[in-house]
Amino acid sequence: MTDMAFRPPVTLRGRYVEAVPLEREHVAGLAEAGRDPEVWRLLRIGPGRTVEEMTALVESFLALQDRGELLPFTARLRATGQPVGIIRFLDIDRPNRAVELGTWVGRPWWRSPVNTELKWLTLRHAFESEGAHRVQLKTDVRNERSAVAIERLGAVREGALRDHTRLPDGTLRTSVYFSILADEWPAVAARLESLLRRPWDGAPSERPASP
C-alpha cells in the first residue's frame, strides 16, 4: 500500500458542489459566505466575517498546506461557482493512515445537501483514493446541530475532551469526537448516496456524479 499523500492539487466534483484547491482569489467570496457571526461562534478557527479576517484565515491554511499538515478546499456550488465554505483535511497522520475532516459552510446552506455531498466527496477521497484507515471528526459539545449532522453520516461517537482548547473569544471548548473506519466506509457511503438521491430545489433525483 502506498503512503497517504493528502497533498494538492486535488479537485472533487459532485452533483451540487465541488471542492477545489483553496486559493487567495477565493477570499472575497468566502468572506461573503461566512459573514454571519453564528457560523464562527463555536469553531476553533476564524472568524472570517470580513475580507481582512478571511485573508488571515486563508493565509494560515495555505501556510499549513505548504508544510504538508493540511489539505484545504474551497467548497463552491457547481451551478454558479459561488463559494459556500471551506472543507479541509487536518491532523494528517500518514504513518497511522489517519486524518481529521473539518468543515464550515455558510448559514444559508445549513440543513441542505451541500454539507452532505461535501462529506461524501471528501470521505470517499480519504478512504478510496488515499487509503486512510480512520477519519476523525469533532465538534463543540454545545453544537448539537453539528453533532446530529455528523452522526447522520454514520460516524461513531467516541467521547469528549473536556476544556481542551481555547476559542478565539477566550472561552474553553469541550470537543466531542467521532470517527469512521475503513471497514465502516461502504455502509456510510451507501447511506450518504441514499440521502443525496433525494430531490433538492427541483434538482433531478439521480445518483451523485462521479469524479
Describe the overall structure.
The chain has one domain (12-196): 3-Layer(aba) Sandwich (Aminopeptidase), CATH 3.40.630. The chain is α+β, with helices and mostly antiparallel strands and 211 residues long. It has helices at residues 27-33, 51-66, 113-129, 144-153, 185-196; strands at residues 12-13, 17-21, 70-77, 83-93, 98-105, 134-140, 156-166, 172-181. Helix 3 links the parallel strand 5 and strand 6.
Write the layout of secondary structure elements.
Elements: E1 12-13, E2 17-21, H1 27-33, H2 51-66, E3 70-77, E4 83-93, E5 98-105, H3 113-129, E6 134-140, H4 144-153, E7 156-166, E8 172-181, H5 185-196
Parallel strand pairs: 5-6
Antiparallel strand pairs: 1-2, 2-3, 3-4, 4-5, 6-8, 7-8
Helix pairs in contact: 1-2, 3-5
What is the structure about, briefly put?
By secondary structure, this protein is an alpha+beta fold. 29% of the residues lie in helices and 29% in strands.
Keyphrases for this structure?
211 residues, Aminopeptidase, eight-stranded mixed beta sheet, disordered C terminus
